[in-house]
Specification:
seven-stranded mixed sheet, alpha/beta, globular, five-stranded mixed sheet, binds nicotinamide-adenine-dinucleotide
Length: 467
């Protein structure tokens, strides 16, 4: 990096939005575009992906927009626009039939200015490096915003966990742990669960790591969070992300004149985040009226029992077949009139078509990066408020932090303590976002990035860049 860059005195880049043309040739199916390319000199400077649909370009683009609004120095913009380390591993695993298969795994370490890298492990057949990079980047922003002493990381294995027996998954997870063991550690990089990975997987990772004596350290189980409670997990961790979504709504809804007790809610994805958000918001008096996951959509205007649906999903693998509801298609799901829509499935699911038909007042982003920039523009034009993911779903990493503290101090907190401390972090983060919105007169996503960037800027100011 140049001295000029390091002193932050260099040029101020500018963000421009231009409308892109569909990339396909006539007569062939054009790839779905988001209609809009976010341009920024740093994209060219760092040779970031040029495809407007690329998740990394989209997520970093939103941060760079916020960075320009707050006038963040150029040297911080380039540091934060790329991860520090991108680790990719390939490892063979014996299947139950005695044959070997080769698997691909990732660990991306985005930034550790605030503390050790922290972020989940995704087990999904469609995991790619750019997705993992985006999710690692979002973790840096989230940890900074919610005030936990971590940087950002993310990882994963290209695997469909539903297509493997328990014994195969155990060998895959343990072998992956061995492959990345020298790159993680209780004081260096602390993974956690994400889509497709479970508390059992976390237990295998902690156990495998503890056997690698040369890297194990003093509290090997603190190498990972989201563990079963029996093996160092925290009470309240399983529900933490859903709890954080609802805590954020409770804090933010009054200024939108929405009373949570009389809300109608729809939820996309009914796994960990979706089901806990549903159960907790229902317990606050709201009514869950529509849910959609990879098995289909369901609706009941009188209310779907969120607790019973969670039990059904655990048993059958999805919402399809739940009794006492009407099966609906994707279009009907998005058109269902609700106050709050909680996307809690995968990234980039709210594109232009979905944004045009969504019938809600607030989108509370439980999933990471569920709304594309083009989808977001339409929601904004339609006056729909978006509670951004780095705020809304930060409850998971916050309670992961509590789990790590408990492991490090050999202590177990009571559930009331976990919930109370989580609420404190969520409320403080929400207030910082509100303050930033007021100061910069911007949307909530930009405000959330600004609040996160302010903390990172402050730490870089005192740490400097060495050597
Ligand atoms: P999960 O695997 O428990 O659930 C994922 C859900 O998404 C399932 O209900 C699945 O059916 C649904 N889904 C998948 N593909 C779909 C499709 N094409 N259409 C509709 N639904 C589909 O995962 P999770 O842990 O609940 O994570 C969900 C999101 O929340 C992810 O973006 C994840 O990164 C984010 N997140 C999770 C946590 C956490 O603590 N688990 C924390 C922060 C953010």
């Amino acid at each position: 990096m140049s001295i000029a860059a390091a002193t932050g005195k260099s040029k101020k880049p500018s963000v421009q939005k231009t409308v892109s043309k569909p990339a396909g040739k006539s007569g062939t199916k054009a790839p779905e575009t988001n209609g809009e390319v976010l341009k920024h000199p740093i994209f060219d400077e760092l040779a970031l992906p040029t495809d407007p649909n690329n998740l990394y370009r989209q997520t970093v683009g939103s941060m760079l927009h916020a960075a320009d609004v707050m006038d963040l120095p150029h040297y911080l913009q380039i540091i934060l626009a790329q991860p520090k380390n991108e680790i990719m591993v390939h490892f063979p695993v014996m299947m139950d039939d005695g044959e070997y298969r080769l698997f691909k795994g990732y660990r991306v370490q985005h930034n550790n200015a605030l503390g050790p890298y922290k972020g989940g492990l995704r087990f999904h057949h469609d995991v790619h490096l750019d997705d993992v990079k985006s999710l690692a980047f979002l973790m840096t922003m989230k940890c900074s915003l919610v005030g936990v002493p971590y940087g950002g990381g993310k990882g994963g294995i290209k695997v469909d966990p539903h297509k493997h027996s328990k014994t195969e998954m155990e060998r895959i997870v343990r072998r992956f742990t061995t492959a990345i063991a020298h790159n993680i550690g209780p004081d260096h990089d602390i993974p956690a669960p994400d889509v497709g990975s479970t508390a059992q997987h976390m237990a295998w990772i902690a156990d495998t790591y503890s056997f690698l004596a040369e890297v194990g350290g003093h509290q090997p189980s603190a190498v990972i969070t989201g563990k079963p409670v029996e093996y160092g997990g925290s009470l309240g961790r399983e529900k933490a992300t859903g709890q954080g979504v609802v805590d954020t709504l409770v804090e933010m809804l009054p200024e939108l004149n929405i009373d949570i007790k009389h809300c109608k809610v729809s939820i996309l994805g009914y796994g960990n985040v979706g089901s806990w958000s549903g159960k907790i918001i229902q317990d606050k008096g709201a009514k869950v009226v529509a849910v959609m996951d990879h098995t289909g959509g369901i609706r009941n205007e009188a209310g779907i029992d969120a607790h019973a649906l969670a039990v059904h999903c655990k048993k059958t693998g999805g919402v399809a077949g739940f009794k006492g509801v009407t099966a609906i298609d994707k279009d009907e799901f998005y058109r269902t009139k609700v106050d709050i829509f909680i996307p809690a499935a995968l990234e980039q699911m709210i594109k232009e078509p979905e944004a045009k038909i969504l019938n809600c007042k607030v989108v509370a982003e439980g999933a990471n990066a569920p709304t594309t920039p083009a989808g977001e523009r339409i929601l904004q034009q339609r006056g729909i408020e978006i509670l951004p993911a780095i705020l809304c779903n930060a409850g998971g990493v916050t309670v992961s932090y509590f789990e790590w503290v408990q492991n490090k101090t050999c202590h177990q907190w009571e559930l009331e303590t976990v919930d109370r401390e989580l609420n404190k972090h969520m409320v403080q983060a929400a207030r910082r976002v509100r303050d930033a919105r007021k100061k910069y007169k911007c949307d909530l996503r930009t405000a959330a990035y600004i609040a996160a960037l302010e903390r990172l800027q402050a730490v870089y100011a005192v740490r400097g860049i060495f050597p």
